[in-house]
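Methods — Computational structure assignment.
A single polypeptide chain was analysed. Its primary sequence is given first, followed by the predicted tertiary structure written as structure tokens.
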Amino acid sequence: MALKITVYSAGPGCMQCKLTEKRLADLGLAYAILPAAEELSDDLRAQAVDLGAAIQAPLVIVRDAGGAVAQAWGGYRPDLIDAVAGERREAESLLSGLNRPGKPRNDPYVHR
């Protein structure tokens, strides 16, 4: 699951932006940071609003492997950052199980 996370920041004085960046980094999530005033298009802003995001700094956009906007939120939301990290860990765990031939997967949905 290749997620692309972009943080649209209000600048170096934005405390919620700094907290968001720190949380992403602490959880090992790769992200890009762009200045909202210059890089945030009206179309992307509309997509974020459609997904229920509050338009406040930072605006965080999470794209799926196909490039579609999967999640969006405004402000510092550690709960949502943690959820994205959990989704990534779950996907990595599933993929690592698939890459080990001969080792049975512990899948509760498979009846043996």
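Note: The mean pLDDT is 84.
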